[in-house]
Write a structure and sequence with these properties.
The protein has about 120 residues and is an alpha+beta fold. About 20% of the residues lie in helices and about 35% in strands.
């Protein structure tokens, strides 16, 4: 059985493939390039300002003195496999964190681990 495609059908198929190819980078996840994977910074006895348990990444905002640090975390599903829960930390908790700092020197980074007040370490 022979299937014939008219010019309009071919055009629509080509257009659909083109749009899919162009939109793929938009849907792609950002890289780790904004963080310095060769450096690990430890912040001891910081105060949790906010913990956002959200996709695509959870975020932990901590304060040391007057300086705030925004720490990007894994996705909630990945964090769950590392022992985290949506209520593992809350505003006002005192914790210590290790992170890969931002390359641009701003206060923030990628969370590597957190040590809670009870001594439990979450990766």
């Amino acid at each position: 059985m022979e299937i014939r495609m008219n010019a309009n059908w071919k055009f629509l198929m080509a257009l659909s493939l083109g749009i899919a190819a162009i939109s793929a980078p938009v849907m792609a996840h950002h890289s780790f390039a904004m963080f310095d994977a060769n450096k690990v910074v430890e912040l001891k006895d910081v105060t949790v300002v906010e913990f956002r348990w959200a996709n695509p990444h959870a975020f932990l905002i901590v304060k040391s003195g007057e300086q705030r640090y925004a720490l990007e975390c894994y996705s909630p599903s990945a964090m769950t496999s590392l022992g985290w829960k949506f209520n593992s930390v809350k505003a006002g908790d005192r914790i210590s964190v290790t992170m890969h700092p931002l390359r641009n020197g701003k206060p923030g980074g990628a969370l590597k681990a957190a040590t809670l007040a009870n001594g439990q370490t979450l990766g």
